[in-house]
């Protein structure tokens, strides 16, 4: 599944879902939480894995304005400045104010690797109901070198000859393996040509040899495609970073489980997050290359989602590297401090989120939010392109490691869930593979 996929999102449906959700689900789904002194609250998924493109900010404003206001939160307190829920970034004629910016909660790797250490406070602050839904891990041995080595390959992959890239495509997986560019449609109906992705499972080259499974779950079960003759170093760098991100993600998952259990909900429905991730054959890495964008004077940088549309990742945990910016092949600091990763906070503010270059960040995905019954919360996010005058020709490379349940893992969805309700059968049970393929069909059928 292409987690940061774009779609023809139906924001009225999203709004309706939100209304149903906010009135009923807060009462029902997480009812066990009512005993907890901590206030548990929810958000919508901002229209699903959708790219709002041109209507993004208007729709965000509409959704935001219809939502109940929420209390100040820890995340909010950490913000240096926050913009209104519209996420409105001044579009023209105004001198741009400094971007609202929030630093992630950070955990040193030396603490994370101690299984018996109690990190619940940090987990709650970063990933709990009042957190940002993203947390960073500092000082992971080996990470800085592996990050740079892989991210430097992103523009090289994107600039391989067209015929070579064509050979790296895998339409049968709906471009969920190998090279993918311009295959997704934006809400406007236009193809998303702003970024190119290279997808692979960094853990298993051949997740299964069972043809039935390959046909049933092509986006996970097909085999990796590597540019073995044109760029052999890609496979090595991709696998090395992906494996490290999985290892550290498993450590984080262990502490997340500890936190969830502490909250008094008992075990998850099914396996713990750590077991779920450890036993999965579905992990997917995505090397992203964002092409330079040029904005007209009128656009003045476009919306906050000008590089990657608003979405929540649908799996368990997503590892993210800090992006690398280049101009004409020279590594640079991004000349526009407003560019980068944005999230919507629990209290409906759109903020830029920052973490150190050498930190490894993790975001919660929808499946974890559902299975932890809202103890760990997924975060809507998007990426803004640089838009200031001196930002021309700037590109961005990053890597996302989507850790998700196995295709065979049975997910017992609660009777009401905040995401993709219409895909869940009345008995509420699907395997993760079935759930993912339904999502792929929802967003890609007939669109490639
Ligand atoms: O580019 C980024 O920083 C985030 C990418 C992302 O959200 C995704 O691929 O799902
Ligand atoms: Fe994402």
TrEMBL record:
Its lineage opens with:
Eukaryota, Viridiplantae, Streptophyta, Embryophyta, Tracheophyta
The similarity annotation says: Belongs to the iron/ascorbate-dependent oxidoreductase family.
Q: Which UniProt keywords apply?
A: Iron, Metal-binding, Oxidoreductase
Top-level division of the source organism's lineage: Eukaryota
Q: Which GO terms describe its molecular function?
A: metal ion binding; oxidoreductase activity
Q: Which residues cross the membrane?
A: none
Q: Which residues form a coiled coil?
A: none
**Region (Disordered), start-end ranges:** 25-106
Q: Which SUPFAM superfamilies match?
A: Clavaminate synthase-like
Keyword Metal-binding (UniProt): yes
Task: Please note every region of biased composition (Polar residues).
Answer: 25-36
Q: Where is the composition biased (Basic residues)?
A: 67-79
The name of this protein is Fe2OG dioxygenase domain-containing protein
What species is this protein from? Answer: Oryza punctata (Red rice)
Q: Where would I find the Fe2OG dioxygenase domain in this sequence? A: 276-405
